[in-house]
Amino acid sequence: MFRHRADEALRLTRTIQKFIPRQFVDHLSKHGGMELKLGHADEDEVAILFCDIRGFTGLSEHMRPQQLMQFLNSYFCRMNEPIHQNRGFIDKFIGDAIMALFDHPGGTPQQKAADALQAALDLRIALSMYNADRKKSQYEPLGVGIGLHYGPVILGTVGCEDRMDTTVIGDSVNIAYRLESLTPRFNADIIVSATMLETLGSGYAVKTRLLDWVRVKGRQAPIEIYEVLDHLSEDEQKRRFSVQTHIAAGLACRIKRDWDGALLHFYKAVGKYPQDSLARHHIAVIEQLRQRTLDEKWDGAMETGALS
């Protein structure tokens, strides 16, 4: 009887862990909590990753409900492993999106950020392998966008006594989510914040290029955002690096409202690498800005929802 009850308890524990990440419970234990209670809250600094399928709405329109669920589960199973292998855990599946946290128990902020960045690069590898399998079945390849940020979050429980859920909230979560949503605009696979790069430190080998100076929705202070290039071919990295000086100079001119100077640099970037959409994006932005009446306090940062 006791063995039967122990087996039942073990099965129940394993089932619950599929809905509540074990790492979340570990956070409670670390801060002295031994059971999940409504309203419990802990603060921690973590790296946050958002990953979303591009064009998912159009893709899902052509699937029957059962097909859609099979597709999502197949995709999520492949995306799960790179996150767990890099000491992260999936906090939520939000439609076709994944929200993951990297807390590297006992580790430094740099280690947490490094885990998240490596997971993002490994997700790109997993996606390439998945697309190779999809090609064999004559399915269209998938594209995903990934956003990464590092900062403080609040981990807690919300709901009511008979129905509660674990959650992670805070400005840092909003930033990571907004960065992922910007990937289609900049035609970038992985976008990271300047804070993320500062946390990694100058000694960490990661290849990036400056994309823009933006103010994400829901936040007052603007941030610099960067594109990660490590997963691209060497030739493509060189081409994108070749225009970096002009992009940075053009953005500096934009901040000073020097529209002609900004356009000069951005057109030079187009001349060096015509296929790169980044410079053309900034040219379109400048042409719109010079037609607008800007507030005296405008600081050169673009609102993420202001321009398409």
Task: Sum up the structure in keywords.
308 residues; alpha+beta; Alpha-Beta Plaits; 2 domains; 9-stranded mixed sheet; globular; Adenylyl/Guanylyl_Cyclase_3/4
Describe the fold and architecture:
The chain has 308 residues and is of the alpha+beta class. It has two domains: 17-177, 2-Layer Sandwich (Alpha-Beta Plaits), CATH 3.30.70.1230; 233-295. The protein is 48% helix and 23% strand. The chain is built from twelve helices and nine strands. Strands 1, 2, 3, 4, 5, 6, 7, 8 and 9 form a nine-stranded mixed β-sheet that branches. A hairpin with a 7-residue loop joins strand 7 and strand 8 (223-228). Helix 4 (65-85) packs antiparallel against helix 5, helix 10 (244-255) packs parallel to helix 12 and helix 11 (259-272) packs antiparallel against helix 12 (277-289). It is globular, with a radius of gyration of 22 Å. The model has no long low-confidence stretch (mean pLDDT 87). It comes from Salinimonas sediminis.
Short description:
This is Adenylate/guanylate cyclase domain-containing protein. With 308 residues, this protein is an alpha+beta fold.
**Count of DSSP strands:** 9
> What low-confidence regions span 5 or more consecutive residues with pLDDT below 50?
none
Number of helices: 12
Q: Helices and strands, in N-to-C order?
A: HHEHHEEHEEHHEHEEHHHHE
| Straight-line N-to-C gap | 65 Å
The CATH architecture of the largest domain can be named as: 2-Layer Sandwich
Approximate strand percentage: 15-25%
Give the CATH H-level superfamily of the largest domain: Nucleotide cyclase, GGDEF domain
Sheet/helix structural class = alpha+beta
- Helix coverage percent of residues? 40-55%
CATH class of the largest domain: Alpha Beta
Mean pLDDT: 87
| Cα Rg | 22 Å
Total domain modules: 2
- Characterize the largest beta sheet: strand count, sense, and whether it forms a barrel: 9 strands, mixed
| Shape summary | globular
Kindly identify the CATH topology of the largest domain. Alpha-Beta Plaits
Organism: Salinimonas sediminis
GO molecular function: adenylate cyclase activity
Domain Guanylate cyclase: 47-180
Protein name: Adenylate/guanylate cyclase domain-containing protein
